[in-house]
């Protein structure tokens, strides 16, 4: 069964950092682009970042570029999102998604608040 | 960025009746490779989104055939031929032809 399981969310103060992880199973991670998306009640669904199968290319939405870093370890079947300089507007449910949107994780909640 | 505009935002439907959601993009979604990367997602209450349709009109495995997608260029439609109780949720269109990928605002389907 194809599965994605996110972890690493939590409560963090503004300016702080978090590292999200996504464990993939049931498919060969190294064959796919992977995405991080986020969802808030106010802004709906928002694409955050993509990474090429071999990790050689990454893309970011303007609002996180320079603060967030997407990476992957295909040997460990894992995807990551390092989030620095967090802002209250980064508060959201974060999803790990397989290229094309067929498979989503259950999400991990990030709350940025003092 | 490509703006995706859905209508209506609220869709009350009687069980067994058809439903339709429109999605319009601010620019053509035809990719250089000739494909149109327009997907439809369903998000039931308390669940992650689930893809229903990819590349405009291709139904994912396990998706009931009462769901169908159509359209081209900048104008797309998701149709449900006969709404069932399990169809309650929010429906989103999403384009991944252009960077950044963008979503519509969502259409909330409820049973009258």
Describe the structure.
The complex is a heterodimer of chains A (114) and B (112). Chain A is an all-beta fold. Chain A has no helices and 10 strands. In chain A, strands 2-10-9-4-5-6 form a 6-stranded mixed sheet, with no helix packed on it. Chain A has a 4-stranded antiparallel sheet with strand order 1-3-8-7, with no helix packed on it. By secondary structure, chain B is an all-beta fold. In chain B, the strands form 2 sheets. In chain B, strands 2, 4, 5, 6, 9, 10 and 11 form a 7-stranded mixed sheet that branches. In chain B, strands 1-3-8-7 form a 4-stranded antiparallel sheet, with no helix packed on it. In chain B, strand 7 and strand 8 form a beta hairpin. The mean pLDDT of chain B is 97. At the A-B interface, strand 5 of A face strand 5 and strand 10 of B.
N/C terminus separation of chain B? 36 Å
Net shape of chain A: globular
The N- and C-terminal alpha carbons of chain A lie at a distance of: 40 Å
Query: What is the overall silhouette of chain B?
Result: globular
Percent helix of chain A: under 10%
Report low-confidence residues of chain A grouped into runs of 5 or more.
none
- Overall average residue pLDDT of chain B: 97
Query: Tell me about the biggest sheet of chain A?
Result: 6 strands, mixed
What share of the residues of chain A does DSSP label as strand, in percent?
Answer: over 45%
* Low confidence ranges of chain B: none
Task: Provide the succession of SSEs of chain B.
Answer: EEEEEEEEEEE
Overall strand count of chain B? 11
Q: Could you estimate the helical fraction of the residues of chain B in percent?
A: under 10%
The oligomerization state is: heterodimer
Give the ordered list of helices and strands of chain A: EEEEEEEEEE
> Radius of gyration of chain A in whole Å, from Cα?
13 Å
